[in-house]
Amino acid sequence: MDFDEEPVFILGEPYSALHDRDSIKYDIRSRLWITYRRGFHAIVSVGTFTYESGPLEYEEFPLTEEPVFILGEPYSALHDRDSIKYDIRSRLWITYRRGFHAIGGTGPATDQGWGCMLRCGQMMMAQALVLHHLGRQWRWQPCCSNEKYWKILRMFEDRKMATYSIHQIASMGEAEGKAVGQWFGPNTIAQVLKRIAVYDEWSKLVIHVALDNVVILDDILKLCKPQPGDSESELHPSGAVNGEAAADKFLPEGEKFSHFVNDSLPQTESQKLRSRPYATGGICNGNSSSSGADSQAGDDAGKYTSRASQAEKQGCNRSSNDKTKTTSSSPSSSSSSSPPSSSKWKPLVLFIPLRLGLTEINPIYFDSLRKCFAMKQSIGIIGGKPNHAHWFIGYVGKELIYLDPHTNQNVVDLDSRSMSSDLSYHCVTPPSRMSFSKLDPSIALGFYCATEKDLTDLCLNFSLQDSSCRSMFEVREHAPEAWPSLGCEGLTAAVTPPQRTRGISLSDFATFDGLIGVGSSVDDEEFEMI
């Protein structure tokens, strides 16, 4: 090697090739030289990950005495760390994929950059199917051999024929005015999943999407509890559509559903119900019927306990009867009961799209959101930050826990049942967390009710008085006068098979564009920043 007086620089250090030869040598030797290696432990290949949101930082779950809830399950961050880990790992983590067949034949072959809300909707729907077919206490293990698990997984595979595939969701989104490759908001994905679910003959779930922050019990009961023959004349011999009559069937003899809702409130709230049409209770507003029976005197707080226990007793009896009619031995709901007979009750997935603020979420709703995660029927919340959707599965203290779809993985072949394919659908790293205050105000709550009793319990939890919770939506027995009614135009055979159109309310398909309680009409697009 020839040495001359030309300057030498090594990572910012100047040297003389004539006089600093040893220094140059030792400087270069001090750098870490990292090369190819062989003989290390085998790497489980799940394809090359591409992370959209920059460098990832995994934080271990905090050691805190603050309460922890994961989809209705309570935990201690101090004593249940392994249980928390296995619970979260058992949720289906559905992310961006690349390399699938082009959507529509000529569309995109990856959903990176536009499909995060679609993936969040898939994750929430997958959780409903896990509850329905496997039960809340089911836990995933690598190389799982459970046939129902693999059948659920294949329903979300990235191929056209999979029921809840990205191809089906993106294509069905066009019926909601969303071109393939365009962002979805929380309400849009809920409406699309509702349209697709009617083709899921295995699960036979009913999806109801609340309209304008209002849950109409009539609509739910007509969908979930059809009578033999599935005709309106058999549902109601008089020809009138009456969801209250259906609701009354699972209450004690002589009781009315309107009594049950109203008397479930403490005495002070019952008194308010007599003097005005609505009263605040828990995380929702409860509707008061105008029937004369509702104004009877003598309501007191004790009725809440007696009526709730009576309804629970009858609900348990009905649930027990349903269990004897099913051949499945696997638990299917958060209460670990088997799927009920479809002739009695069709399991419900309830989406409640909300907007809890204008440009930022209003902090008064934080406790109400926490209460939702504590309900056993919860299947989480879809929402996130502008241009960045997440599936929220719980909370610890002041932080939300979520699964993030912003990881781009290669498409996998689930028919092979390989470990790498299986692992790519489960998040084995510590879950992500974010402050409640960073949540975008446009969200959708999700709940799964396997039985009538689950719906009854859910409505009770909605209405339970809690001074720290602010109402986020309204629950009514009947639709308001101006509400879209059954039989309106808009339910076509192309969207819903003819045998399933009876009893479906137009509100289930209408665009969510009015927001009661917020004071403005802000549509789903506010979340959809491209």
UniProtKB/TrEMBL annotation:
Region of interest (Disordered), residue spans: 261-344
Single GO molecular function: cysteine-type endopeptidase activity
InterPro entries: Papain-like_cys_pep_sf, Peptidase_C54, Peptidase_C54_cat
SUPFAM superfamilies: Cysteine proteinases
GO-annotated cellular components: cytoplasm
EC code: 3.4.22.-
Protein family membership: Belongs to the peptidase C54 family.
Name under which the protein is recorded: Cysteine protease
The organism's taxonomic lineage, starting at the top: Eukaryota, Metazoa, Spiralia, Lophotrochozoa, Mollusca
